[in-house]
Every structure is written in structure tokens, then in C-alpha cells.
Records
---
Amino acid sequence: MDLDFLHFDATFEKAISSTGFGRFHFSLLAVCGLIYLDTALEITILSFVLPAAKCDFNMSSSDQGYLTAAPMLGMVLGSYFWGCLADLWGRKLVLIASLLMDGICGMASSISPWYPLFFCFRFLSGFGITGAMGIVFAYLGEFQPTKYREKILSWMELFWTAGVILLPLTAWAIIPLRLRYESTFLRVDSWNVFVAVCSVPSLLLALWLSRFPESPKYLLEVEEYDKSLEVLRCMYSTNTGQPPDNYPIISLKEKKRGLSVVSIQSNRSVKCVKDLKCLLSDVWEMTKILCRPPYRKSTLLTCLIQFGLTSGYYTFMMWFPELFHRFQRFEAQHPGQPTSICQVSSVLLDDQGPCDPTIDTSVYLNTVIIGLSCVPTSFWLPLCVRRLGTKFFLVFCLMVPGVVALGLYFVQNSWQNLVLSCVFEALTSVGISTVYCTLVDLFPTNLRVMAAALSLTFGRSGALFGNLIFGYLIDLNCFVPIVTFSVFLLGSGFLCLFLPNTGREELN
């Protein structure tokens, strides 16, 4: 090898850029994108389970609200837990563990014959999947050179859209089959099979991810220089087809360290890190760093934005199929009569007949249409994010849905409801992905997943709050939750104005 091309004590940006950009990055995008797709399935799966399972569990609207809140409660408690572990013990290991927990608990929920047991396993499934959602963007972003990072992270939105489309298609293929098996301790219906099928990807993705390396940026941060360099050599070989020994970087430049999570961790023994008291102490130190300058402003803004955005997005996404179902029932009973979301709920509440678990095919079709409406915006984000900037997408994709959410109160038929639902989903889903992209750049490696986890905790708290009040008020005074979520979205859009434009500098 020509010694003129060798580099000693290279910066990480130089090292990651020298690996090239090719097959390794595309493979990593595929597995991370499918993990993000899987989170779309797992988070919104109950939107189709509710209409199908309400007869088996004899659920009222408030019971359905509690059930949709169960995975959100798990996410509230799990977000910070997984984020702490990912910053202390590494991205890959924790990501695999969260996927396995989600898959196993999802499978267990599919054969749960009682409402409390089903509720418990969906809570644990939510606890697991939130780890995958909080870590996958940081894991993917830490393999990317600055030139490609923002665009690669933006392509993740397309996988989320694929998940939103795939979920109703899977439900449409399985739930109407009306499969039924019942014994003393086990009851399996078609919706149980649907839940089981949606749990399989988490297990398969955990196995696939085990073939990928730990983040080289994280390894560098925890002073594992040789391991980080070995990962970079493998990336170089996969991308270029050259032997790993041809990689031109000989050594990596050590970072100057101040008070950080990693300096805290590196001064502890392995035994101490495994000790609960030491772990909690480390978590507390990490949290204090996030709440102090220079990170305090970014931490506060992202937490408040996540609360407002997530409360509106996940609440409406969980309840859209149920609202379509109610519109379909009302229009079948009162053909040609205009109505609204509030009126259709109150009329059906007063006119409850025998419980009917059948979901009309229009509900599946409408949800697929909502997913398809996201395809243009899924391409718009990665193709234009470098030109328009992340701040533009955040403000636009929160302000407009805020107005659209208010407009849901004024719809007069199912078609108007569908159109507004499409606009709402197409833009808010872009907002969700853009927030994750922004978080990767706002915080340094040693705090990145922790900061994302803290903001996710606030976001899932908003989703939990939203599902509880929506399920309770939709049959009593639906104007209040609609206005509340509209204000939350508009407020989050306003707060985005105070965020910096990201994606232009190398990762810290």
C-alpha cells in the first residue's frame, strides 16, 4: 500500500467518509428501516384489534381507551429505561433486546383469553418497542458521514409509510376470515392470529440485526478505538470490495473529554455498571447533564414538541379505524343523512344493539388510502430536506395538521372525514420522522439516545393522555378532545421555530 494514503490519528468524520458509501449503508438502511416499519405495526396494531375484539372482551368506549393507552403507558416507562441502557451499554445490544421483548410479549398477547391479561402483555409490548423506536435513528445516523446523514435518516419516513399501508392490508387479509377455536383455557379468533402475525417481524429483525456491528461512533466514544477501527474496516471492505487491510486509516484521534456519560461510565468497573445502585446513579448524572446548559434549551424544546405532536398523532391514528367504523354503521342505518363525528358517536351510543365484531371492508380500504396518501410526502422529505431544512418541515408539518384536526369537528360525512384524515396522517408522520432526525444532530454521542429517550417519554405521555381522554370524551363531548389536540399541534409547531436547522455539521 502507498504510505502517502495512510492516515494516523484521523477524526471520526474522516474515518467514516473513508469507508465509502455503498452496500453496507444500504443493508443497514434496510434493517433499520424495517425496524421502523415494525414499530409502525406494533404501535397502531390495536386500531384494528379494538373493533374486532370488543365483543370477546365486552369493551365499552372507555375500556377501548384504556386498552389503547396500555402500550403508550409501556412506552412512557420504557423510553427512558432503554435510552439509558443504550448510552451506557451500546446501541446494538439494547436494540436487539427491545425487539425480542416486543416480539415475545406480542405473541403472548395473541393467545391471552382475558382483557386484563391482554392489557398486561400489550403494556409490555409497548415497553419493548419504544426502545427500538428511540434507538434506531441514532444507531443508523452514527454510521453515516455528514454528507449523507440527513438524507439517509429522512428515507426512514418511507418505511413508516410502508408500515401504515401494510398494517390494514394484513388486517384485511386475516381478520375477516372469522377463524375460531375455543377450549377451556384458550380462545383464538382471527384477530388473535392477526396479532401473532404482526409480532413475528420483531423476532426476525432481532436475529438479522445480530449480524451487524456496534456503532463505531459509540465505540469511539467509550474509548474502544481498536473495535471502532475494526468496524470501519469491515464497512470499507463491504462497500468497496477491497480487503479490510486496504482501509487507509491507521488510527483514530482520541477525543478531549470533559464531564460526560462516558467519562462517568469509564471510571466504573464492569461490576459496578451491572449494579442497580450504580446504574441509577449514572442515569441521574446523565439526566442532570441534559438539564444544564448548553443542552437545557434543546432538551426542553424537544420534550414539549414531542408531547404536543405525539398526543395528537397517535391518538387520531389509533382511533381513525374506529371512527370509520362508526361512520359506516351510521350511514348504513341513516343513508344520505349528513352527520359529524360527535353526532355519529352519540347516536350509536343511544342505539346499541347486539355486539357485532365485523369490520366493514370500507374501514380497511380507508386506512389503506390514508397510508397511500403518505407516499408523496415520504419522498418529499428526503428529496427536499437539504434544500428546505428540517425546521421548515417541522413547522409546516405541525401547523397544518393542527388546523386539519380542528376541521374534523366540522365534517358532514365519511368522505370528508377521510380526506382530512389523509392530510393529517401525511403531514404528521413526516413531522414525527423529522423530529427523530433533528434529535440525532442536537445532542452529542454520549447523550444522544438518552436525550431521544427523554423526549420520547414526554411524547408517549402525551399519547397516553390523548388516548385516555379521547376514549372517555368521544361519547360525551367530543369537541373538547378535538380542540385540545389541535391546540397541542399548533403549539408544537410554534415551538419548532426556536430549534436550529440541523444536518449541516459532523456529529459531535
Note: The beta strands are 180-182, 187-189.
---
Amino acid sequence: MSRKMLIDGQDSKAEDGATYDYDLFVIGAGSGGVRASRISAGFGAKVAICELPFHPISSEVIGGVGGTCVIRGCVPKKILVYGASFRGEFEDAKNFGWELNEPVDFNWKRLLHNKTQEITRLNGIYKRLLTNAGVTMLEGEGRIVDPHGVEVVQSDGTKKYYSAKHILIATGSRAQRVPIPGQELAITSDEALSLDELPKRAVILGGGYIAVEFASIWRGLGATVDLFYRKELPLRGFDEEMRAIVARNLDGRGIKLHPGTVLSSLSKTEDGIKVITDHGEELIADVVLFATGSQCKHKRLNLETVGVEVDKTGAVKVDEFSQTSVPSIWAVGDVTNRMNLTPVALMEGTCFAKTVFGGQRSKPDYNFIPCAVFSIPPLSVVGLSEQEAIEKANGDVLVFTSTFTPMKFTISGRQEKTYMKLVVDADTDKVLGASMCGADAPEIMQGIAVALKCGATKAQFDSTVGIHPSAAEEFVTMRTLTRRVTVDSKPKTNL
């Protein structure tokens, strides 16, 4: 069936004769929402997008064009990781002939200022991208009032109603707090990226991406860091062997690990924040960071009234094309809790636009999506972990590993190794997963992801000529089998 696109200044009539202000109204101008808006507009749709006023720290009523990743997530966090990495670089430099005779000072406020300048610049770029694509931008809080209607509450309290053939929810998620006594004394990653003063003593609760990354940042900038998490190892869901390696690196850099331990209460004292654990331990911190996951942002969207279903975790339920239980309402990104990564939200937004406005029914493909934890050094993976491969394999799983001292460290003397791993299906020779923990891991893994997406075999890895001298060449020289795991046996590591 043909559908009449909206032309600027005109209304559109749907097949049922209804008239709408827009073809598409997007709530949330983060990565997924912006991508969906631009691609949809490129297909000829008349698009509007609403977003909360800009601020580095989000709430129910403030946010900003660019969303979590750009304003209070991946981008500013990696800027801080870069800043924290220099401490080790200065030490490495000495054995390369650099004579640093005077103490090297660090100015936290300068780094914070430059970080804020950069996210402000990116906020402006995202606005220009939308404007150049012909998307109408509206500032305010969007609420769904009917299957084809959105009410935008502006900062002065004024409410405006807009109708649309399709509504896209792209509101993302927000960091959550742990309900313990004194929780108001803790901060989330939002505030951690905008602290007025660099803490000297930091306590972090959590074992995921954010917890590990901030532990690396603060320790790299000179703070003492205590990291508490429920499991025996951080980074639940990653390859067990690589988790152990990350834990070893964190410990080696002076971060105090507290596995199997959580916080029971926080209280304010003259010396700082008093932290009590579930094991009865006590310590004093300047800052306590809750890095215990996030919640989908849709509580104020009015979903229940219009019949949009959510699951038991609070995520908006969608089908494989990102359509909700209400046919005219769709959702992409973290608010759906499928795979909460910025590039995935971009993929979902693109597939939505192609499906609804491009005449190309497109489903997001979640296979072989690479990701990285920007700890120091970073961890990056693509495909299946060893444990996942064993669960899914019909035959034996072959594991190849390499552990080595990077060439740079053989001169600098830093006691830190790089670890690489390939998981291979014994019957087909296909490489099922790859992992790396070491300098430049994310840069290397992006290329490996292309190979795995194309179905590369171990023989093809082996026949590829390496770049010498580089760490990356190890991925094509791992010819000695580390272990062979049968389906019925449990994996063993050589740690």
C-alpha cells in the first residue's frame, strides 16, 4: 500500500483518512533517536523530535540533544580515561630516555573544563545534524497521550499537542541508586563525570563496565580506590578467563578489590563518608559511586494509559522490528533493554527508518557485535565467550591463547601483559569469538569483528600475513592449541 509523505507546510492523510502533523514524532534525541530521525527524514518523512534541556547531569526534566553517550557516558568517560592513562605513560617514558626531573602536576579542573567544552561542542553538532536533515526540534518533555499523539511540556510549563502517524520512543536509561541507608550520599556516573574536586579516596559499588572504568580513571589520577562487587570476578557476562585477567590488572594497578561484598549503609562524618559493608567492614571515602546498572526511562511517558507493554525489568517490549504492542508506537535503544550499546541503538534506529519509511523491512542483527570496556588497559571482545561457545556447540571447542609482554613494556619495564584469545568450532573451523585485554584492544577488535561477521575460519586467520612488529599480529600467529573442550566438560583456564 502506498503512503503519502508529509511535505513541509502540509498535513498528511493516512489510509484511514486521518490527518497528522508529522509522519514521525521521536521522543528522545540520543543516539538512536537522532539516527532514526535523520534516516527517516532522508526517506522523505516529515519528522519532529523532542528532547529535554541540556545539562551534563540528567534527571526527569533535564537531558540534552546527543543523549547519554555524548553528554554523560561513553564520550566524556573516555576523555577521562585518556587523562588517567598519562600517569603510566610518564613512568614508561623514563626508560625511553625522557628525563622527568621535576614532579608532574595534574590539574583536574582543566580536564573537567575541557571535557565539558567538548560535550557542549558535540551537543551543537547533533543539533546541526538534525536541522540539516530537515527535522523539527522541540525542547521539552514528551508524553504520549494517545496512539498518535504526543504532548510536549516546555520549560515554562506550556503544553503543546502534536499528532503523528508513528511515534518512536528513544528515551534511553538512567543510572540507578541502591536502596540502602544513606544512599543520598552516593553519586552515579552522571555526577562522577562532573565532580568539582578529584577525590583522594573513592569507593565504588558494582562490577560492570562503569565500575571498572571509573576505578581505572580515579586510580590513574592518583586516588585510592576500593571496588566492591557481588560476584567473585568483575564484568559478569564476559569470558571467565578474561574477567580474571581484568581483575588481575586492576589489582596490579593498586585498586583494592572486594569480591563477594556489597555496601550496607553510608553515613556522613567529619572525615568523609563512612561506608559499612555487609561483612561489617568500615572505611572512609571522599566519594561513593553506585555503578549498579540503569533503569529504562519511560515512567513519565504515560505508556500504561495508551497500552504500551513493558516487561518485568521495566523495558519497553518490542518485536524484532522494534514495534511495541501499539502498532503506531515503536521503540529503540536502551529503553528496550536488548543490547545496551550506542552503536546498537544506531543500528536499531536505522532499521526502524528503513522498515517504516524506506520500504525495506529490516531487523537488527545482534550477532558479532564488538564491544569494549575502557579500563586501563582496555578489554575488547566480539562473538561468543568460551562458556557461551561450549553451551551452543554441537562438537568440541578449540581455544587458542597468547600471553605476551608488549614491545613497549620490554623497554619501559612495566609489569603488565597483553592477553588474546580465539574460540573456534572444531567441526567447522569457524572462529566463534575473540577477546583481547591490552593496549589498543578496541582498535584491533573492530577489524577482527569484520572477519567474524564474514564467517572467517581459523585457517584463514592463520594464512593472513601479520603486521610486524605489532600486537595485532598475534591474532594471526596463534597456531598452537591451548586446550580442546568437549561439550560435556567444563572449561579449564591456564591462569
Note: The chain has 13 helices and 24 strands.
---
Amino acid sequence: MWFKSGALLLLALVALANGNTTSPGTPISTQRKVLCYYEGSTALREGLGKSIIADIEPALPLCTHLIYGYAGINADSYNVRSLNEALDLDSGKGQYRAVTTELKRRFPSLKVLLGVGFFKDPTDEKTADKYLTLLESGGSRTAFINSLYALVKSYNFDGADLAWQFRQTKPKKIRGIGGSLWHGFKKVFSGDSVLDPKADEHKEAFTVLIRDLRNAFEHDRLQLGLTVLPHVNESMFMDAFLLKDSVEYVHLAAFDQKTPERNPSEADYTSPLYEPTGDGERIAANNVDAEVRYWLTNKTPPNKIVVGIASYGRGWKLPEDSGPVPPVTVDGPSPAGPYTNESGRYSYAEICTQLPGSRLSTLDGAAPLQKQGEPKKAGLYAYRVKDKKKKLKGMWVAYEGPESAAEKGAYVKAKGLGGISIFDLSNDDFRGLCTDEKFPILKAAKNMM
């Protein structure tokens, strides 16, 4: 019902008039994008971690896009829905309307998109595969498209950012030579390497979904962005060569390569730009540069590729007998911080206030963390050695700081890529608690780009 005849021809003529020879429906801006994500539910936090819309406004002059999240999928109807209606909808606190109408009035050039998925849509045993089963029916795909279009139009969003919750790959376990041989032998007969028996079907259907959603959006000049989530095998689930023509950008969320949930006994850099140096068994593809090269190999225009930068870190308990140089033997997630209140996950403000020279101390334990890392290649980490006499708990945290974020901005510029993302604004130091400078990660990456 949304398709309009002649729309492709019209857009092609507009593209030619502007000197753009790319495929119809895929406008490419010469301006590098700065995608600023904002998770609306952080307005419900308590204390210094609470981030309301007014708190993110100082960042918006640096952003080309604001992606407000998150919406999810109703497992019965496959309609798109707000994950917090009391917060987002007009019948509640109306944050959808606040970010689209009020913020766009103050920042006319800002594009505000609705974020869908991003592993924020909770599932249980019954609904775990709703993002896959939706793809298997033309009727369910149509229900998804029509409901997303209606929600975007009703609340005056400029489009949507789709972060499809495909099944994540299993974490790689540390094995000796004997263990690796046995595991490989077992996989041949047990078939435990099959992540999705219908992967080919889902891959083809996802391409159709994105194409049809693009067609539904283009008459109203709505934008469609694609986010590739961590630990999603895009070669299995996404046809990169075909998808590139239906989206404005491909956002590579190449962070969370190691997390306390997936890797409770081994800590490492979470968002390396290149493969880290040093000892230890690592997966060569688990870095930003490898992700970028994959999409370039599949003919994605460089100026459509957006590099994701996480403004939070991952923390583990550091045992007394473990050294700090990654990869590190650890003992599960470290205690929750006071802002995010999540075990093993800290906003940059929670980390930087624990580094030497900070005015505050917010993480578990009174002693500051020692800062180390390879910002030009792998990222940053900080640690505190366990000391029973002083009753200090050991901690090891991998994170993104202004130095490493700047390197990613410089990388984007050097490679001629489409831009950067900050995930998300509420996890950057939006209050300026560490150095009196607000949003230091965003500013460092943007300035270098």
C-alpha cells in the first residue's frame, strides 16, 4: 500500500541533478555522519547517571543524526512497538514527541531516527526467535513494515535505524591443542556448529525486508540505516552486496568483542581498531578494521560505512595471582557501578572518575585504577590489583577513552569512510565529571574525523 509508481524514476532524476550517480533510493551525503545514539530509558536512572533529554542537548550540534531507542517487535502480531510506552508515547511522558518535535525545532539540521532492536528487545524461551520467524512470512514482514512506517510518521521521526537481533555466535572457548582437536572432531558428528538451520532462507528474506522497507520509506524521504550488531555473523545472515543499495548507511557496531557475560574467565580489549599485539589466542576478524574491510570487499561504498564507538567499558574481577596485560585470566563480572547499575558494564564517566587525577571516585573500592593500553591499535584498559591487607578488590576494565576514540575518528578520515557513531550519549561523560568537559569521547572522535 505504500509503494508509489514512478518514485524510483523521480529519485533517479533528483540524484542526477545533484551529481549523484548511485542507485535510486540511496542518497549519499558528502558530509560525514555522526550518529548519536540515546537510550531513552536512561531518563529513569537515579543519581548522576540519570540522563534526560536536556542533558544530551549540548552534544547535538556535533551530531548529524540522533537515534532514539528502543523499539521492539510484538511476538504475536510482528508489529513494531515502543519498549516503554509509559515513557515514549503521547499517552505517557511523550519522549518520542520531545525528541522529534522539540529537538528538531532547536536543531533544524538534525535527523532523528527511531532505533529498533539492538539487543534491547527482551526475549524469553517462547519469543527468542521472533526476529527470525518474522522473516519467514510475507504477511509478517508486511505487518512489521506497515507498523514501523505508521509509528515513524505518527511521531515525526525522519526514519529508522534497524539493528536486527539475529542469533549471536557462540563465544570461543580457550582450549589447548588436544581440546581443539577433540572439539573439531565432535562438531563433525554433533552438528553444534549450526547456528541457524534456515540461515539461507533468513538471509534472502532479510534482503527482501530491507528492500521493501526502503520502498515504503522513500516516498516520504524517510531514511533507513542498518546497524550490524556485535557477534552477528553477517556473512550468514546478511547479503552485504545487495543490502548496500537499500540503506543510507551501514553502521558497524564492532564493539563488545569480549564481555563478562560471554567470556567470564578471560578479559581482553573490547573494541580494538586492529588485532591487538601480545600473547593469547584471538580471533583475527574481531576488530574494527576487519569489519570495515569485509563490507568494502562486498562493494559497499566507503562513504556509507559508519564506525561505531562505544562510550562504555566492560569490567571483570581481577584475581590476586593474575597479571594485567591482556588477555587476562579473570573471575567473572566486576560489581555494578552507581550510574549504570549493571555488573561488568560501566559508563565512561564511571571509569574516568576512577582514574588518577579525577575529582570523584565512583567505582567499587577507594583506590584509583591504573591506566594502560594501546590507543592507536587496540584501545585502553585500567586495572587495580587485589590487596587483601588493604581490603581492595581486584578489577580489570577495558574501555574507550578520548584517545582511542580519536584514533577511530582519524581512521574514518584516512579511509574515506562515512562517519562515526557514539553509543551512546548517556554513557559519555555528559556532566563533565572528570575534566569539566562534557561529551569528551564524542568530541575527540568528531574533531579527528
Note: Confidence is low (pLDDT under 50) at residues 1-29, 174-192.
---
Amino acid sequence: MESGEGAGGPGGPDGPEGPGSRFGCASFNQDSTSLAVGTKTGYKLFSLTMVEKLDCINESAETPDVYIVERLFSSSLVVVVSTTMPQRMNIYHFKKGTEICNYSYPNNILAVKLNRQRLVVCLEESVYIHNIKDMKLLKTLLNTPSNPSGLCALSINHSNSYLAYPGSATIGEIIVYDANNLNTVTMIPAHDSPLAALTFNASATKLASASERGTVIRVFSVPEGLRLFEFRRGMKRYVNISSLSFSPDGQFLCASSNTETVHIFKLEQLGPSGGDEASTWTAYVGKVFSAASSYLPAQVSGMMRQDRAFATVHLVTSGQMNVCTLATIQKLPRLLVATADGQLFIYNVDPLDGGECMLAHKHRLFGIVDDQGEGTESEVTGPAQACPSYAATAALPASGPVTATLTGYSEDGGAKKGEVIPEHEFAAGPVCLDDENEFPPINWCRDGTGGDQARRS
């Protein structure tokens, strides 16, 4: 899920994780204000504006076996793909209960990414880029390197709609493509082994990646492709990193895998500059490692420059896929993890001291009694205010990086009434996300030509 970019979800075209599971996929929307869950019976959308309460804002049973479901910010536009028709993408206006359009492709759809400007469909060996205003097919990238997991990332910042996808099936090359101007920006030699996860930060100035080995996470500048940070997830074992996500302010990066640990890294430069930081043990060790790297072998010095996790979460179980995101809920930073067994965990994150994150609430996303209220749906493991270190967090001055907002959106992620997203180059007009009188971003209705267009390309 995007964060983001959310990274994909626990499911896929071949079915969800585990036999008999009702869970097909999970994705957070672009600003992590809602969670979309695909199941064997359809899909659900949940609002993420509160910690203790998880509101189901929409539930659809029209399409079974959903393995892709993506919502466009806080609008009513939802993209759905089902294993019953894995080559067809359906786009719905869920508040009106109507289908806006559908599109068919030559092979199975592996991923769909969208922002206010573009909608990207990823197949195993091709990528389709559509204008989200009218679903016009703008570009087809054919014969891309084999990408069986459909790995790709689209920046949520529509003013520079960068798309990232694997540039090789054997090593970790990243192609960064400008989906607005329809040209390749750069190729980043990120890892020695094939890519496993990609995500942009909210402003599309940074791109994080992990390889199939899962031991090192790297962050690059966009569009230059310069390596900025390296974070070592672990050295003892290779893991499958399933999800990467930046915090709204871009200062933190979370990573989840098939292990029981979720890591949160802090993007900060340890330099020789003065101030309190220079006198800390971390800064001192950083200086020693930096000096030592000038005469140590490259492999050793590279390892010594890695930063360890700023904060961690230990899940109850391991071995199952999940998707994670960092969000600001009720004015405090939270880590959210949706797991393949149909649960959502919300953790408090201390942005000052890090450490082990405290579980604030656990929600069941579905169950036998999932329509009988929150009492049967969720388990309280401790209110958010129970964490004493959060007194300091809540008292931070307004200038502190405790929240980040996107143009046209209020702090809670809902669209401001009447607020208009500025016009951009390829749109016929501004995209208004006023849910009272919503103008769907896609105003092209299905007339039977959509599937032919995709196939002809």
C-alpha cells in the first residue's frame, strides 16, 4: 500500500495467504486515512481517523475473490480486481453504487496504483499509464523485465507523478519514470539481488527500496537517484520485506516482512556539526565509523555505516504477509499493520525516543459477528494516552513535525468542502473532491471501447 505507497497486500491473483482464508488483500490509501480490504466475498473500506473505533464506510459483495482494491485518497473512487476476472479492472463510485468504467488487459493485472493525475496498471511484462480524468491510455511500456509480483510504486504527489518499477529480473535495478511527461528519468542500481519493495515519500523527493534478501533498505534522492541512506534490517537471515512506507513528514520509514518484527528507521544525517547531537553516543560512534571507513575494505566499511532501527514492533505471529504504514491519527504518530489473518494493529510511535512501540488497539477486520458493533470487532489493549512519553509528544510546539497535510485536505485527511486541487497540465479541469457533490475524477463512461484500447496497445 502506498504509501503507500502502500505496498501491495497479503494476497494476489493466485489467492490469499493460507487455505480457506477470507483475506485477499489490504491496502492503505495514499494519505493513510482509510484501509481497503479484499475478501472472498467482496471488499470493505474502513476509516482510520480514530484509534479506538474502526468505522466500515463501505462494504460491497458484488465482486467475489477480490485481490486488488485501491481507493483514491478520500474520494468515492475505488479500483477493484477479482480472481474471477484477473485481466479486468473495474472502477466504481462507491457512494453512488455505480460502475464508472472497466478496462481489460492482455494478461493478469498484478498491481494498480493511482494519484490525482495518473492510474497505472502493472502486468508481469508491461505497464499501462492512464489519465485518471478520462481513463485515456497515455502510454504502454511493453517488454518490461519480468515482474511476477507486480512490484511498482507511484508517487502520490500528482505534480510530479514518478513511477518506479524493476529494471531487471536478476539484479536490483530501479527504473524511475515520469508519468506526467511520459519519459524515463533515471535508472538506479539499488541492490545486487532482485527488488522486493519500493515506495516514494509524500513529496516524491525520496525513494526507498529493498531486495529479495531483505537485509538492507536503501533510500535514494529523486529524480537524481543519489544514495542517501542505508538501513540494515538484520544480518542473521534473509527475509521477505513485503511493505515499505514513509511517514507523512518523510522523517521515518517503516518496513514489515514475513518475520514478527516491524522496523521503523529515522532519516537523519549524523554529521560532525556542533550542538547536542554531536555529544551523543550515536553521533560519536557515527564519526568513528566514518573515519574507519576510509581505510577499511569497501564491504566492511559499508556494513559499518548502516543504521539500526529507531523503533520496533513485535507482532504476535510471524510467517504471514502484512502491509504497514505510518500515519498521524488524532494528532499523534502511529504505526498501522494489517495482517493476512484479518487484523489491524495500531501502535503508538514515540518520535523522540523510539524504542519498542506500544500497542494501542487491535481491530478484527471481519468475523462471524462483524456487524454487531465495535465491542465484538476490536480488542482494547490500552488507550493511546496510557503511554507516558506521549505527554511530551502532545506538548511539542506547532512547528514540530507531528503532522503533514496535502493540498486540498484537512488534518484528518477528509476533503475540505469545496476545496479544489489546482489544475495540472493533462487534466481538462481541476479535480474537486467535495463528497457532497462529488465530481468523479473519471468522467468517461464505459462504451465497450475500453477493453479494445488496452488490447490494441
Note: The mean pLDDT is 76.
